[in-house]
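Protocol step 4 of 6: structure prediction from sequence.
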Amino acid sequence: FVFNNMSDPTPTFSSSSGAFLDHFGQLKSSYASFRPTYTASLFDKIVQYTGSAPRELAIDVGCGTGQATLPLSAYYGRVVGVEPSQGMVDQAIKVGCPSSFCSI
């Protein structure tokens, strides 16, 4: 199944080739500039939800440009952002996320 409509930039896999179609990576600068950020209260809720559990590691799956990954680093010893779009990972590093981001 393939989306070729940029108004719906959902990364997909092509059933014919098995190749990842990186629509978000093509929009990385716009995405980083215009996507709303998260409020501090969200991160407070996450910390509250985890209670007294050790805060050694957080994994931000589908991290995009790191808009949640960077703030999570204030609460966790290590934060790993996992993002299938290499373009988004590159943009995350450009805006200050460490290069230890994973791209899958």
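Step 5 (inspection) to follow. The first strand starts at residue 12 and ends at 13.
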